Amino acid sequence: MVPFIEAVHDRYTVEIMRGCTRGCRFCHAGMTYRPARERSPEKICRLIEEALGKTGYDGITLASLSSTDYSRIESLVARLTSELSERCVSISLPSLRLDSFSVGIAEQIQQVRKSGFTFAPEAATERLRKVINKDYTEEKMFDSLENALEAGWDVFKLYFMVGLPTETDEDIREIGALINRIRQMGRKIRGKRFKTNVSLSAFIPKPHTPFQWESVVSADALEDKYRATTSSVRHRDVKISWRPADLCMLEALLSRGDRRAGGVIYAAWRKGARFDGWTSELRSDLWAEAMAENEIDFGTVTDFAYGPGDALPWDHVNTGVTKRYLLEELRRSRSEEFTADCREQCLGCGVCAHVDISS
After folding, report:
1. Residue 152 and residue 110 in contact, taking contact as beta carbons nearer than 8 Å
2. Domains of the chain by start residue, with CATH
3. Neighbours of 275 (CB within 10 A)
4. The whole model's pTM is what?
C-alpha cells in the first residue's frame, strides 16, 4: 500500500535480517527475536524489484536491528547500487554500528543521495558501555566517524541513553563532552556544513532482558540528566532532542506493569487518549485520571527493582531465553564483563535448544 500523502519515511523498506547476535543487555528485540536469521540476497533483490515496480518509490531502506551485521551486506549493496543507481533509486542503511561501519559501503550508497548518518553510542564512557555490553572503545568510535566524514557525510545523528544501571554523574557529563569532541572533528573535516542531531532517551527496563529487574529513575532525576547534557553543549549546529519525562514514565508503566496496567490502558482509551507516543497528542491528565481510578501510580511500577527470586508479571511468557541466562548477564553487567557475539560461540541462552535454525 502507498499513502496518498508523503510519509515520514517515504520509501520502500525491506527487512534483510531479523534478530541480533550482539546481546545488548537493555534490548528487548535483541533477546526476543533470537535466533538471528538472514534473507538471501536473491530474495531481497526480488522483493525490491517487485516493490519498486508497484509503488514508484525512489528510495529503499535495508532494515534490521543492525544492517551492517548482515553477513553479505557489502556484496548486497554493491549489487543493488549497480542495478538501481542509473534509475536514481537511493539506498539507506539505518541503525549502523560504530564498529561495523564500512567506507566501501558508504561510498556506494551515497552515489544517488546522501542522507544523514545514524550512530548509537548509547553510553559515553567505556565503563558504562561494558555494563550494557557495547564492545567498542572511543578510539574505534572516532575511527569509524572519521571514515564517515571523509566519505562525505555532513550530518550525524547520535543516540544516547540516560538513567542506565550504575550510571554516575561522570557518565552524564561525558555525553556532552563526547558530543563536543565529535562536533569538533566534524567541523575540522567537513567545515561549516557539518551538523549534529542528538537524541536522548530514558532507560526503561524491558521484559525478557537482563535489565528487566532494574528500576527507573524518577521524572525529576531524568529532567536533571537532560539539563546536565544540554547545558554542556552550546552550539547552534548541534540539535538535541529528548522525550518528555512524563511520557517516559508512561512507557515505564506500560513496560513494567502487571495486569492492573490493562485497566489503566482501557480507562485512558475510553477517556480519549490516542497516539500518545506523539508529544503533541499526549494527554497526561487523562492517564493520571485513569491511574487514579485503578488505584495505581507510577511509583507502583517504576521506583523499585525486582529481586532475582521475585515472580515477574511476564514470567508466563516464554521467549526461549532462560531466566538463568538473563540473571547471569545481569551479574556480568555489574562486574563490567563483556559477553561475546553469539556468532563467535554459543552462549547457552536456551533459544537454539528449542528452535530449528537449520533452515
Report:
1. yes
2. 1-114 (3.30.750.210)
3. 9
4. 0.89
